[in-house]
Design a protein that fits this description.
The structure is a single chain. The protein has one domain: Phage tail protein beta-alpha-beta fold. Helices cover 39% and strands 24% of the residues. By secondary structure, it is of the alpha+beta class. The chain has helices at residues 2-19, 31-34, 38-42, 60-71, 98-111, and strands spanning 47-48, 54-59, 74-77, 87-91, 96-97, 114-120, 123-128. Strand 6 (114-120) and strand 7 form a beta hairpin. A three-stranded mixed beta sheet has the order 3-7-6. A two-stranded antiparallel sheet has the order 1-5. It has five helices and seven strands, in the order H-H-H-E-E-H-E-E-E-H-E-E. The radius of gyration is 24 Å and the shape is elongated.
Amino acid sequence: MRVIFTQLTFVAGLFWVSTLQAQDEQKVFSPERMALPKSAETDSSEMISPDTIQFPNNPVSDFLLVYEKLKGVTLIKDASLLAGGANLSLTLNQPVSKAEAIRLLESTLLLNGYAFIAVDKNSVKVINTAGGKNP
């Protein structure tokens, strides 16, 4: 009786394991796929005037507009950003490189709950993680 129970348990376990599905393969973006468009790559050392980024108390939409132009990508925005989003501050007091300006904008937005998700080399999703969304 014990042998039959053990065999049935083993067969049931095999059946259960066979019904499990493998996890979906996660997409891994290679560096060449995530590279900036050619126009953005060539001027990463271009200096940005402090007047370009003077946001003493501006809506997130202002940050994203400048980010989109500097990065050379199309932003796919979370619905919560349609109304402009929260007000944030970032001001430059000296010229910075284009790459540094992009990094400063990304850092400010990330620190305030906005996440960037690269879709491909020409588009990036922006979501508000404070709204309960996970990247």
